[in-house]
């Protein structure tokens, strides 16, 4: 996957990629991705199997570390903090806190098989955000 | 078009198995011979067995055997989880220490380890709490801190931890790595992922061998009789020493071990059933359900039962 020309509009962008590179060993999967997705915009990433679509999405959630470039989610640098002109890795706690703000559906869904449907839906609010069970369960069914 | 008529139900003559009848007859004769000898051979000493079975000190020994099993398995499971997580850690020091522990404790006989704990005071005559290489705040003699029973629990438990570590590690590795990622993508932290997502699913793989370990531990505890702990077997040996009724007393102990391990097996069955949630469509039948299903037919045991209603599967 290599980047095309896209408008970089950092203020309004929900997801902003600037020259993102990612390699697995000798295989360079992402070669300079530039992308900007504005709030409310629906974007489709289309490509042949193995072209790096999933890899890019995983990078946005910091499940993979990028090798070069910058990735921003909601205006915040993904996975790092820039202080004094240097990048600092984020503590696990902070990474988890930011991930909680990003929704992601995996290619293989990865429901938690040992939980009921209701518990699957509630697991985020219940375990991560500490919402009381009654409140989480009340909010779970779609209106 | 009229609805097709339903054909009549099938009533076929079952295949005959003459070989089964012959085999059954042979087995029945052997069983009859065994029962005959149990009744007529007075050396079994059923009266002696009955006399000692509910003797106060035997029951105390039995309680101690259960206590040792519980305590040793408690240390084993807790230690095993810690060792397994350490072993899978990216930190080479942690995984190295865990590897070394497992290597040492699995590589030496538990009987030798029991004697080592029992004789710990030879190496360290007193144990103290304080700053490493610095002043001590409290200290006590090793022999008062580690009486024989504690030495037994430590010996059995720390040895068990090494075996449990491998069982837990296998369970953790059996969980789809995608589960780990999915949990981190909704913002769970490492400890939360372990506790809420990975371990509950690993349990399905961990529980059956752990039940096996507990069952084995129940009988391995009899080794503590060599360090002067009066568990079921120690008490039995005491009576043998004073009455010389070896066979009846050994049978008496065997009856209690058998009864105890039966109780453990039933408990294990229900624990396994609990952790099968999400992995199987229908829960396996309980022993009672199985019995009821088999009572209705003499010809062929049925174990395939209708799926358990989903409502009963929730917690
Ligand atoms: N953890 C990894 N280690 C090594 N190679 C990887 C890893 N993850 C992905 N790859 C490789 O990176 C390439 C891109 O994979 P990716 O899963 O992103 O493709 P995709 O576009 O999502 O494909 P699909 O349409 O089949 O889902 C593939 O060649 C894949 O084998
Ligand atoms: Mg994909």
Please provide a written account of the structure.
The complex is a heterodimer of chains A (143) and B (315). Chain A is α+β, with helices and mostly antiparallel strands. Helix content of chain A is 24%, strand content 28%. Chain A is built from 4 helices and 6 strands. Chain A has helices at 53-60, 92-99, 117-128, 133-139; strands at 13-24, 27-38, 68-73, 76-77, 80-83, 86-89. In chain A, the strands form 2 sheets. A 4-stranded antiparallel sheet of chain A has the order 2-1-3-4, covered by helices on one side. A two-stranded antiparallel sheet of chain A has the order 5-6. Chain A is globular and about 45 Å long. Chain A starts with 12 loop residues before the first strand and ends with a helix. Chain B is mainly α and 315 residues long. Chain B is built from 13 helices and 2 strands. Chain B has helices at 18-40, 46-53, 56-87, 92-107, 110-118, 120-123, 142-145, 148-174, 177-185, 190-220, 232-243, 246-275, 287-295, and strands at residues 126-130, 136-141. In chain B, helix 4 (92-107) crosses helix 8 (148-174). The two termini of chain B are 50 Å apart. Classes of the chains: A alpha+beta (143), B mainly alpha (315). The A-B interface holds A 61, 63, 92-93, 96-102, 104, 106, 108, 110, 112-116, 123-124, 127-128 and B 176, 178-179, 181-190, 192, 196-197, 200-201, 275, 277-279, 314. The structure holds adenosine-5'-triphosphate (ATP) and magnesium ion (MG). The site of adenosine-5'-triphosphate has 11 residues of chain A, from helix 1. The site of adenosine-5'-triphosphate (ATP) has 11 residues of chain A, from helix 1.
